[in-house]
Specification:
The complex is a heterodimer of chains A (166) and B (427). Chain A is built from three helices and six strands; from the N terminus they run H-H-E-E-H-E-E-E-E. Chain A is α+β, with helices and mostly antiparallel strands and 166 residues long. In chain A, strands 2-1-6-5-4-3 form a six-stranded mixed beta sheet. Classes of the chains: A alpha+beta (166), B alpha+beta (427).
Chain lengths: 166, 427
């Protein structure tokens, strides 16, 4: 991987994209969010105790291919998704954005996040960790090829479920 | 102290069963449970496959006790209390690893991985009355295994584990036989999450098939979207697409035993697995037929079973195989730990399919478990009214003769009768 191979990608572009994605997720505009996913997009949340394990031999929290993401969006937008009805109010802060590699049309980006999730009765959950995005760049802009969410907590514990798109 | 009153109304003549909701909210009840249940029953600690090499260990909390689950230098699986004999500090602070010795960081007392005392620094300062050899790590009174599922018991007078498990062993066997060598292993990756609800609500939820259509309609939609037939049956007494039973296994253990409709890695194909998986899954089934015969193979592949070992071990042999245990943290919260279990000789593709199937339903990011968690938390929140709305209703199916249905509440009553007996007949 060569960080400087593609001089046309700037951190500001990647930041703008990640902030846009965060807004779509926080505002539950998940159909629009699907619009910025590549056709081969994947979404992974590895287990807290084995962040480096592969999803084919390690029990993940979430390991979605594109079709599973589509089904997940159908589910979480359904009022019968009880874990998210009424919907959590979400607010995520993204910082420490770095381009960690460029390979052809693929851009690897790392960022730190805090995702605040509020449920009724002022129950507050703070998910903290690192996003690892692989973005595919085209004339129309970026599409997400992979998003991988690495949680900093030793265990999910009081965070309970990952019932929304983290 | 709560006293020896009954927490249930069990009127078999009228067919009414009620549970006093104080059982789900009271700190006194929880103290009673720690004494009368968690200190008397066989409590699951871990699976031998988590300790592959001599010296491997995991630290965990079991029934509120910090323990070290370890394989010693000679290969013996052990359970030590993770507490220094000197002043009581944890002697192992890592989650897992491999070691010959456990060192207390406070004054440097050192223990061998078989629990025996290795060294007390500056031991010349003690009198002759101080016998260093007696200062090995303490261990639960009993520690036994059935097919590599290891349990501890704090009661030296408890029956042998295999007698305690009784008829439940048949259902553990149905899981273990999925491996050609009868060797299952816990896979990497642990799901650990809290539920703000009384631990006994998870016992109920793990076998309660009545809730499936209402709590899990989004999962049923997902199954339907993926080509699985999920229409409810013609028989109005059934709520699931297929017939299922609730079975009392004695000693407080019970299971569901359902005709499968949801796909099983061993070995019932559904479209989610993909066309590519068909030949391999056919081969897995054929191997079973050859090894255990067609009837037993059908039993393994075409039924799914959620087994509860009293009080708090659940083995879900459904969309995948899970081991799930949970412990109270106060009357209103529990810590849940879940693992995936698979045959050691499974191919890479079969292993990947098993893990993927797990996530279609189970776990904190699954398509079903988060809604179970929500339902249990809604119960706990609603139970704040318990003093004015005292009784939970659990009579469903009570008039039914003979076979009991998974979508009734026979198995829940089985749990609560046994729990009530242990709580009220204890000294």
């Amino acid at each position: 991987m060569n960080v400087h191979a593609n001089a046309t990608v700037t951190r500001a572009e990647v930041e703008d994209f990640l902030y846009h994605e965060a807004a779509l997720l926080d505002e539950w505009r998940l159909k629009e969010w699907e619009g910025i996913l590549a056709d081969d997009a994947t979404y992974y949340v590895p287990p807290n105790d084995d962040l480096d394990g592969g999803h084919k031999d390690t029990l993940y929290i979430i390991s979605d291919d594109r079709e599973r993401i589509r089904q997940r969006v159908i589910r979480v937008l359904d009022p019968n998704c009880h874990a998210e009805f009424p919907r959590s109010r979400l607010c995520r802060l993204i910082t420490n954005v770095r381009i960690t590699g460029v390979e052809g049309d693929l851009v690897h980006a790392s960022s730190n996040f805090s995702c605040y999730r509020y449920r009724r009765y002022q129950r507050e959950f703070v998910y903290v960790g690192v996003y690892k995005h692989t973005l595919r760049k085209s004339a129309e802009g970026f599409k997400i090829k992979e998003r991988r969410v690495l949680l900093a907590a030793h265990e999910l514990g009081q965070l309970g479920s990952v019932s929304f798109i983290l | 102290m709560t006293g020896a009153r009954s927490f249930v109304v069990d009127d078999r003549e009228k067919g009414i069963f009620l549970l006093d909701r104080e059982a789900l909210v009271s700190d006194d009840v929880l103290r009673g449970e720690m004494r009368n249940i968690f200190a008397k029953c066989w409590i699951y600690v871990g699976h031998g496959s988590e300790l592959k090499r001599n010296g491997d260990f995991h630290t965990r909390k079991v029934a509120g006790r910090p323990v070290i689950f370890a394989r010693d230098g000679k290969g013996q699986v052990r359970c030590h209390f993770n507490t220094c004999r000197h002043r009581g500090a944890l002697v192992c602070t890592e989650r897992k690893g491999n070691t010959r010795r456990f060192n207390c960081v406070y004054h440097g007392w050192i223990y061998n991985n078989d629990g025996s005392m290795a060294r007390v620094p500056g031991d010349e300062a003690y009198t002759a009355a101080f016998d260093q050899s007696t200062f090995g790590l303490k261990a639960p009174a009993r520690f036994e295994q059935y097919r590599d599922f290891w349990f501890m018991n704090l009661d030296p007078d408890a029956p042998a584990l295999v007698d305690y498990l009784g008829k439940a062993t048949d259902y553990i066997d149905l899981v273990v036989e999925q491996s050609p060598s009868a060797t299952m292993e816990v896979l990497a990756g642990t799901q650990e999450y809290d539920v703000n609800a009384n631990w006994k609500l998870m016992v109920e939820n793990s076998v309660d098939d009545y809730h499936l259509p209402s709590t899990h309609s989004t999962w049923l939609n997902y199954m339907a979207n993926s080509g699985v037939k999920v229409e409810p049956p013609k028989d109005p007494s059934l709520v699931l697409p297929t017939h299922g039973l609730a079975i009392d296994l004695g000693n407080g253990h019970f299971t569901t035993d359902n005709v499968n409709f949801r796909g099983r890695p061993v070995a019932a194909w559904i479209p989610i697995y993909g066309e590519d998986a068909k030949p391999e899954m056919a081969a897995i089934r054929e191997e079973l037929v050859q090894r255990v015969g067609p009837d037993r193979a059908k039993r393994i592949c075409d039924t799914n079973r959620n087994l509860v070992i009293f009080p708090n071990l659940v083995i879900n042999d459904g969309s995948s195989v899970t081991i799930r245990t949970f412990f109270p943290d106060g009357a209103n919260r529990m810590h849940v730990t879940a693992w995936a279990l698979g045959p050691v000789e499974e191919s890479e593709s079969a292993r990947a399919r098993r893990l993927d199937a797990f996530l279609t339903f189970y776990g904190p990011g699954g398509f079903a478990t988060p809604d179970d968690v929500e339902a249990l938390e809604l119960v706990q929140q609603g139970l704040a009214n318990y003093s004015d709305d005292r009784w939970s209703e659990m009579s469903r199916g009570m008039g039914r003769e003979g076979e009991q249905l998974n979508s009734d509440e026979h198995h829940l009553r089985t749990f609560w009768r046994h729990w009530n007996k242990m709580m009220t007949e204890a000294l």
